[in-house]
Write a structure and sequence with these properties.
mainly alpha, globular, 0% strand, single chain, 51 residues
Amino acid sequence: MTKKEPVTPAFGAFLSKCQKEQLVNGRHLTNETIAQATMMSTRTYNLLKKG
């Protein structure tokens, strides 16, 4: 089991910004897309999302 990294408010804001930009572009942003954009695995992203 990997150590859980703390989630920073800046990271959450970054994800929100990504979602808003993608919606403006008319594209649906999935968890997998966010994970790829932030250069981390979907599993890591899901752990961060759970907080």
